[in-house]
Amino acid sequence: MDVRDRISAATARAASRMGREPDTQTRWAARARLLLYVAVTCLLAWELYISEVDDLPTSLTIVQVAAVLVLYGLGRWPVVAAAISLPLAVADMLIGFHPFSVTTVASFVVAGVLIAVRPRPIGYAYVVAVIAALTTVQRTEQPLADLATWVTVFLVPCVVGEGARFMSTSVDRIRRSSAAQLTRQRRDLARELHDTSIHDITSMIMALERAKLSGIKDPKVVEEIDHAIAVGRQSVVSMRGVLKILRAEDGSSRRPGAEPVPAPVAVAAPTLQRALDDARVSLERAGHTLQVHVEDRVDSPLPVSVRTALVRVIQECTANMAKYARPGAPCTVMIERTEVETRALFLNDARDGTTEDGALSSGVGLIGVRERVEAVGGSLLVRHHDGRWIIQASIPTIGSTSEGQVERAAQH
After folding, report:
1. For strand 379-385 and strand 331-337, is the pairing parallel, antiparallel, or unpaired?
2. For 390-402, how does the pLDDT look when each residue is reduced to its tens digit (9 = 90+)?
3. Which of 345, 343, 244 is nearest to 302 (CA)?
4. What's the CA gap between 412 and 407, in Å, rounded?
5. Distance in angstroms (rounded) separating the CA atoms of residues 328 and 339
6. Which tens digit of pLDDT belongs to each residue from 90-146?
7. pTM metric for this prediction
8. What angle do CA 379, 381, 387 make, to 5 degrees?
């Protein structure tokens, strides 16, 4: 059993190297069907040529051409193809059977496909039926020798079919095991985030509220406390959206065409205008003035994936402005939208004496933003030029219809 498991795991790893996307198995099945259609077309042309050259009987030609045509439906309806090919093989033998008949080749192919993609009893029942027909319809003087010969010959499609079935089941087994392990890890992470981060943020919010109620008279201090409480509550909302994703059974089961950003994240992410307003407030608290230049077209509905990525870019880049801009220097955000992309430009004067890329000093914030932008097909450029930090983000704006509908509903 241990040897079988090792072989299964090795087979699954070898098969997974052909492609790591979720639909890899479907794409390879489509390619196999295409290869089958090409081979059947060549076989059909060859059969018609042989029929013309050898001057075969018309009835035999019809039966063999029909057997070849049955193979066209083998990729979609293997059981139906098997049910039709069996009487054609019997008819071929009654009319004028010979060992290299096309109907026999068709039976080989049908047997291999049935064993590979259908329950084993169906495939082996078909093999038994074909062998029984081959040895009983036209008896010879050595029936046992004929039986042994056909059993040996049909071992080839059986072995090929079993090999394909073994590879497919090995990949499915590894995939299910990986999915179960990923689900456990996600749930453990969600539990830890809830018990640590959300709990701690909630405790800080409660402490700030108690401090506010303690009789603080300074309006500036009260304003800063209110801002911290609002930011903390928004963080809790966003974190809960992430927890819903982590607790989902299978994040890869999203149907084709659905929005690429999970609904909890899309709901938790603020709108573009809200992100700019929050950035302006944060920069003003840090002693900077935010100058925003946004084209009117940006206000039109954006795909959810684009809006979420753009909002996170604004939040991280303006946070870097507050940390690394020259004290009191104005900061600029420019956003424009074309038919194919949305571009955002962030400019601020660097602090005096700063010679290294301070925006990348931690290496975490902008790396995450870059990954988020690249995940939706965009790009992020960070550079230092003429005493200024310049961050350029470009995000494709071509999204699905469903994303546009979700965004319109959110705005209304």
Report:
1. unpaired
2. 999 998 876 443 4
3. 343
4. 9
5. 36
6. 787 777 655 557 777 788 888 888 888 888 888 899 888 888 887 887 676 777 887
7. 0.48
8. 165
